[in-house]
């Protein structure tokens, strides 16, 4: 079609008279006034409605409970309730948990001949409590029993023996009527299960029941009823999430896709938690055990240094200027309290409590400072970073590539070997210093260390810091042996990583940093034999996604946090379930590190086929 054909035909309109102009202007004014009136009325009415709909605590509970009841009674998850309920036990049981965010959840149990009867029983109890105490239900959770069997008190230790600490994912009733029945989250959240002696800890059980205002147990029965559930939670925004019922992910909301935006959310939330842990002097609240809201009474400057890295990652993602003063304060604390300069050219990071200089501490301090300078386009800490690098060189035998691990506070030698991670931390730091300065001495030292990694087969250690150091080194050196070693470090550990039941956050960092290296290799057109003879890209990508999803089992969603002593304090950060739900600054840092790289490389992961690999059986 020609331009002439596509052009619209111009039609000249007849000229308006003055009377027509005035009439048209009047109509326009009337229309405008009408629109303004409608807008104002809408705003006013909306405000009035919003005030009228401001729910009381009781009404808020009722509205959230209504949403949950629809799920409990729908039957949509009956296929997950595949087990049998033993004869002589209630045909159905429902548990309603409520929390205001400031204290451990209150749990109300209902039983009956069917789901409706069990729901009504639990609901009436919960409703009465909320109404009587004007209780603010920030979160409301419902659990429906799906299977129940009896174990004698002699059989129970054998059952518990099969589980890692805090990984027994079933509830226990201490009587056949379920008068005293506790969910898995209550048992583990209040430390009622003793995994060392494989029994019920009666002291913690009685304390829990007493504080919850529930019927005390004088002595343990001769048999326990062990049961499992399917569940749902209604959050602070009255949004309902279905909770997973499989053992590996039990009790955690279902996530359809852990994508780039989801990764950004957890990084920002967890990093914000770290910001809240920074004290006025720049130190961190080192950690806590949230079951009883107890802080960890120790400090580790090495972990302080590595945690700074997480805050820089958040700044890279958000550009939030409020982070700058917090990061500066934490860096100043590290420099002022823990860095010594025995001469003009050398510095070390000293752990004052133990009066030790640790190789890894010097390494992560350099990483934190160089990442800061890179993110902010600054050379503010160049001098101290270089001096710390020189300190690392005093602990490296460049002929063998081996490091000396620990010095005394007076810089005399103390311990040849402490922990394997120090080697990767120091080598990563040397690579970062080369990036900062362009001085070949750093690169040559890093290469010497990596030669030792290869000769000593550091693949066996499953070390994320080795992965980080190889990822950094291959930015500047295209040695095929380095690429092969780095790919082996992931590939030969994939079975262990894929099948690991705990979140074990450093595995995720190993995978995501290795992916960056793999992508760089492909983009540069570098091909190594190992790609065809050993490396399984599909399994690699599948494992990355699986770990991204599995890591969320260590994220304090409300459905986990509500059973801790002070839920709001631990909400939306990372924990270590198998160590008493421990939250420590380095636990959060490692989790943030893995998700940050996942976020950063998500689009490329998808291009390589990660989501297709995820769905393959």
Task: Write up this protein.
The structure is a single chain. Strands 1, 2, 3, 4, 5, 8 and 9 form a seven-stranded antiparallel β-sheet that branches. A five-stranded antiparallel β-sheet has the order 12-13-14-17-18. Strands 11-10-19 form a three-stranded antiparallel β-sheet. Helix 3 packs antiparallel against helix 4, helix 11 runs antiparallel to helix 12 and helix 15 packs antiparallel against helix 16. It contains 23 helices and 19 strands. It has 617 residues and is of the alpha+beta class. The chain is elongated and about 75 Å long.
Q: What would you call the structural class?
A: alpha+beta
Beta-strand portion reads 5-15%
Compute the average pLDDT.
92
Radius of gyration: 30 Å
Spans of at least 5 consecutive residues with low confidence: 1-16, 30-52
Largest sheet: 7 strands, antiparallel
Tally the helices: 23
* Percent helix range: 40-55%
N- and C-termini, Cα separation: 52 Å
Gross morphology is: elongated
Count of strand segments? 19
């Amino acid at each position: 079609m020609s331009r002439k054909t596509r052009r619209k035909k111009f039609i000249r309109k007849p000229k308006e008279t003055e009377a027509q102009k005035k009439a048209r202007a009047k109509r326009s004014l009337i229309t405008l006034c009408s629109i303004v009136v409608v807008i104002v009325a809408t705003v006013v009415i909306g405000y009035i409605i919003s005030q009228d709909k401001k729910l009381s605590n009781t009404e808020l509970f009722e509205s959230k409970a209504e949403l949950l009841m629809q799920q409990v009674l729908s039957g949509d998850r009956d296929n997950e309730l595949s087990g049998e309920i033993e004869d002589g036990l209630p045909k159905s049981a429902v548990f309603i948990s409520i929390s205001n965010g400031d204290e451990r959840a209150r749990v109300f149990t209902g039983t009956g001949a069917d789901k409706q009867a069990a729901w009504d029983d639990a609901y009436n109890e919960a409703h009465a409590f909320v109404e009587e105490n004007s209780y603010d239900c920030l979160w409301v959770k419902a659990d429906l029993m799906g299977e129940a069997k009896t174990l004698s008190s002699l059989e129970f230790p054998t059952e518990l023996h099969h589980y890692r600490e805090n990984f027994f994912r079933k509830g226990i009733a201490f009587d056949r009527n379920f008068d005293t029945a506790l969910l898995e989250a209550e048992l583990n959240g209040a430390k009622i299960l003793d995994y060392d002696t494989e029994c019920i800890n009666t002291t913690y059980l009685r304390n829990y029941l007493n504080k919850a205002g529930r019927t005390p147990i004088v002595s343990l029965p001769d048999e326990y009823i062990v049961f499992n559930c399917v569940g749902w939670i209604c959050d602070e925004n009255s949004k309902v999430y279905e909770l997973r019922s499989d053992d590996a992910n039990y009790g955690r909301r279902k996530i359809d896709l852990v994508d780039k935006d989801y990764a950004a959310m957890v990084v920002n939330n967890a990093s914000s938690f770290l910001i809240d842990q920074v004290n006025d002097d720049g130190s961190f609240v080192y950690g806590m055990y949230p079951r009883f809201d107890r802080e960890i009474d120790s400090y580790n400057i090495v972990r302080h240094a590595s945690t700074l890295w997480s805050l820089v990652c958040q700044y890279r993602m958000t550009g939030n200027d409020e982070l700058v003063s917090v990061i500066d304060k934490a860096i100043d604390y590290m420099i002022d309290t823990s860095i010594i300069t025995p001469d003009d050219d050398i510095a070390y990071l000293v752990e004052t409590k133990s009066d030790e200089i640790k190789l890894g501490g010097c390494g992560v301090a350099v990483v934190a400072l160089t990442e800061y300078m890179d993110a902010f386009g600054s050379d503010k800490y160049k001098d101290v970073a270089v001096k710390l690098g020189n300190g690392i060189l005093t602990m490296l035998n460049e002929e063998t590539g081996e490091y000396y691990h620990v010095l005394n506070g007076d810089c005399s030698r103390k311990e040849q070997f402490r922990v394997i991670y120090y080697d990767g931390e120091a080598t990563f730091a040397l690579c970062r210093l080369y990036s900062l300065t362009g001085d070949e001495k750093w690169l040559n030292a890093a290469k010497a260390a990596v030669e030792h990694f290869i000769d000593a087969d550091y693949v066996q250690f499953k070390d994320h810091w080795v992965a980080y150091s190889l990822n950094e080194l291959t930015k500047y050196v295209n040695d095929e042996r380095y690429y092969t070693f780095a790919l082996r470090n992931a590939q030969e550990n994939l079975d262990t990583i894929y099948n690991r039941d705990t979140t074990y956050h450093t595995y995720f960092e190993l995978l995501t940093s290795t992916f960056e290296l793999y992508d760089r290799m492909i983009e540069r057109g570098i091909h190594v034999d190992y790609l065809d003879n050993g490396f399984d890209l599909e399994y690699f990508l599948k494992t990355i996604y699986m770990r991204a999803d599995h890591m969320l089992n260590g994220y304090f969603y409300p459905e986990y946090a509500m059973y801790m002593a002070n839920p709001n304090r631990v909400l939306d950060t990372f924990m270590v379930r198998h160590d008493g739900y421990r939250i420590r600054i380095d636990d959060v840092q490692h989790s943030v590190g893995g998700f940050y790289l996942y976020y950063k490389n998500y689009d490329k992961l998808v291009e390589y086929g990660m989501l297709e690999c995820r769905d393959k059986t």
